[in-house]
Amino acid sequence: MEFWGHITTFFSAENYTLFVVGIGSGILCFASGVVGTFTYLRKRALIGDVISHSVLPGVAIAFMLTGVKNPVYFLIGAVISGLLAIWIVDYVQAKSKLKPDAILALTLSVFFGLGIVLLTKIQHSGNDAQSGLDSFLFGKAASMSIADVQLFSIIAVINIACILFFLRGFSLVSFDENYARGIGFNVNFLKSFLALLTVLTVAIGVQAVGVVLMAALLITPAAGARFLTNSIRRMLLYAGLFGFLSGVIGVFISYSGTGMPTGPWIVVVLSLFTITAIMLGKQRGVIARIKLRKGNHIKINNENVLKDIYKLADDGQKTIETSILLQQEKYATSELKAILNRLEKQDYLDQVRGFIILSDRGRIAAREVIRKHRLWEIYLSKYFQMQEDHVHDDAEGIEHVITPEIEKHLIKLLERPEIDPHQSEIPYE
Amino acid sequence: MNDFYTILTASLVAINCALMGGFLMMRKMVMIGDAISHAVLPGIFVAYYISGSTASLPILAGAAFSGILATLMIEWFTKKARLQSDAAIGISYTLLFAIGIILISKWGQNADLDQQCVLYGEIEQISFWLQPIAFGIVLPKQTVILLAVAVLLIGAVIWGYKGLFITTFDPDFALSTGVAVTFWHYFLMSGVSLTTVVSFESVGAILVIAFLSGPPAIAYLLTEDFKKMLILACLVGILCSIGGYYTAKWLDVSVAGAISTFIGLVFMIVFIGTSVLKRKVDVIST
Fold it and tell me: What are the sequence ranges of the domains in chain A?
């Protein structure tokens, strides 16, 4: 009951601050998801990690110069040092033999180390106002002030608007830079602008969830969305929605439990969304792929057994003894029985007291596989000049894959041949 | 004496990280080291919760376990889910780190354990842990553990050098000649987990990453010979520990932060130096 109490309080907007913070964190995570989609597609997912660590010295310097805790100054400092970090990563990568992973790790640790140096300097100088700087390290989503939320939300919304405005350019740059350049897009401008948007997003996101977890807000939603769709627009939408929901739910969880940190809960919820998408994605999902593989396996076994039965039963006959099939020892007895039972259920054959009787349907299916096999053998020996004794293995695999369209094309190409390279007849219907 | 303990501790971390980082860098896997160093948090907490103390064997075991868990997770995401590798790394370690923080904030209030400590360690307080070892030698507890691990790692690298080398530089050839590529992969990953785990408490995750990536990168700019590179990386690490420590003392700032910054400075000098030299060589040869 207490739980429902929390939910109703949350959504009734009685608790105005909490409501605002929840929505604010949702918008923030929405923007991160959207921006992160592009870093993900450009295969630069970990750049978010680098930016989030490297905003620290900028923030510290901004505080040292101004002496006040003003989020606008912090943002300016954060953006400058974030951009500097990206520039260093790109520059070192272009000018040395070092690989991106080493450069990323080095840049983020050095910038963060410098940030820690500056932070401890501020602490030791005894300036009381420094306490707010900690939020840049570990985030403070649940305790954001309403003014903060307003500022962050406005920036997030501007970010999203910019992305929508340049959607076509950003998409092209993410998929194929050279093509984008070729058809007249200003690639350098688009890349720099995208970098600026990313840094801005990170600079506000860091204050909500902290340095380490910021990377997740960029990467995780996009990775999950990728499993649900192939369209970039939908991917942006899904990534944004994942972010938004996690942002709101995270704030809610941290509000309902004592001592529950917000940022980590946002990340846990986000990861759950993404792992679910990875498992259940319609085409690319893990389960879908396992099913597909299993389906293929079944199809191949079915076709091979039918083919064997057809070949073992001499011309015209349809019946063989089960024991003959077993003697071939291509399958374990139990496996073969399972395959036969499955085929019986699908009306390909009947099993009567130790005999197997191929049905018409089974006969047609078996002849189809053999036909595809032999057509492929001819194709290989004719067009690839392969030796007759080398074509069998290849055909053994491909016979299960050839579609009716390809078969038709093969027959036409080979001018409806009568015998295969081993002088066997090709069974047409 | 305090100076000596701190520098010794940092140098031992530097040596461990340089050895592992050299191989990681050549395998383009430095960011996995980054991931592991963050992902050990839940393991550390669980071990702490069960055993009730920090700096003990259960903690090491727990952390090493979650380090391996992180590698397995990354592998699952890349191989089974076919996620691009950088995203797999990012998702895995942030999730584990988040779970770790949730555990600590829920049940670890009185624990001597917080995210601040995980990120930048407590090397300044290293000499609080002094204890007599043998022959009247007194060393901090963590330094002793680091020393043991350093001996272990140096031994392991010398013993397994051939296998590590071939699987790092020519994995296809190694596979075709029947070398157990997977074994060496996990051999190295165990080493990396162990290194980050024993180092995190004294110097924090950030300095571990700086040591894993910085000295090997600096050494790689200076030499092509891999053996020389590993030794040079160790020396650079020690140099940066000394330089960083005195900088920190001089400016009255965090030691871990100062050493990271010092590594950055040395990298910058070497990077600019080698670029200028290369340009000169190019000019002469043309």
Answer: 2-284, 290-429
